[in-house]
Amino acid sequence: MDVFHVTDLNGNKLTDESVINYIEQSLGTIHPGKTTGSNGLTALELTGTDRIGLLSEVFAVLADLQCSVVDAKVWTHNGRIASLMYVKDCNSGSPIEDTQHIDRIEARLRNVLKGDNDIRSAKTMVSMAITHTERRLHQVMFADRDYERKPILQPGGDSPVVTVQNWVERGYSVVNVQCKDRTKLLFDVVCTLTDMEYIVFHATINTAGDRAYLEFYIRHTDGTPISSEPERQRVIQCLQAAVERRASEGVRLELCTPDRQGLLADVTRTFRENGLNVTRAEISTAGDMALNVFYVTDAVGNAADPKLIESVRQKIGVSNLKVKELPPLIYHQEAEREDQTAGVAGTVLLSLGSLVKKNLYHLGLIRSYS
């Protein structure tokens, strides 16, 4: 018996009948093993050491190799970068299948990713497989052991708090996560538990204001609880990383403009030339339009100078590049010029119905979730 209390992204009661009907239909037509992804495209997986301007170099290489990026997500955490990009051939619009071309793509991207001192840990992989992008990014960063690396910047006071204890009488390990609330938080945590080969038998999820409180009763796939102190510490590290990877660091910039060859290379080069670092990116296309989201900071991870942001907007196009989420310091400067949504990602309640539970069952993440 699974019970979810859900709201819309602004924390309001769901009243749209079409949305409610969609949730009901989604929960009633679950197809185990089915994945999401992009058909007819070539998937590129990238891993390396993050640095300012890296993304612009990656997109420049892809443009030079006649690869059009249709969809992509980029995450950074603890000085590492991971990305899953779906590309097609610019000229034919078809997936890239020529083995020599694929080899060139992999070699040049690997050369960019390794830079001067990352020869062993820079990785590229080309695949025709369809996968769930965000879950795959968790798996890539988990395999890269980003959770063991020291963050370049010291985390602030709002870092996730994770505790793990054993309930000996019942044979469970009890995991508690307390952190700032945001969308897809539950998905991120449960994906990580599953990839670590734990099964969630019971869970309680609560939100209060902008805080989230998650409690999970877990066991290994063989039915045993966590058995050692090193294992307990590893679970804590991995869950903290799972929460932090998608954290929205920096100013959110939304780019909406007609798509063209080399657009991403030009935009990210402008970021680099103006000292902006991309901490997270979501690239998508709809028809002939590019719909892209970038989270940017200054070169050392601090809030970007608002004058610098405005300068970049002037160069890319004020009407094309919108500032959608702002630190308090510069909020009042932009409030009159742009429409602001009531509530940002960190202050919304978990929208679990159509988003999380459907994905959990599609991906086979939970056996019983109540």
UniProtKB/TrEMBL annotation:
The record's PANTHER family line, in alphabetical order, gives: ACT DOMAIN-CONTAINING PROTEIN ACR4-RELATED, ACT DOMAIN-CONTAINING PROTEIN ACR8
Name of protein = ACT domain-containing protein ACR
Which PROSITE patterns is this protein grouped with? Answer: ACT (PS51671)
Lineage of producing organism: Eukaryota, Viridiplantae, Streptophyta, Embryophyta, Tracheophyta
Q: Name one GO molecular function term.
A: amino acid binding
Q: Which SUPFAM superfamilies match?
A: ACT-like (SSF55021)
Source organism per entry reads Populus deltoides
Q: What does this protein do?
A: Binds amino acids.
Q: Does the keyword rRNA-binding apply?
A: no
Q: Which residues form the ACT domain?
A: 43-127, 252-332
List keywords of the entry alphabetically: Repeat
Domain of life, per lineage: Eukaryota
Ion transport among the record's keywords?
no
Q: Which one Pfam family would you cite for this protein?
A: ACT_ACR9_3rd
Identify the InterPro entries for this entry: ACR1-12 (IPR040217), ACT-like_dom_sf (IPR045865), ACT_dom (IPR002912)
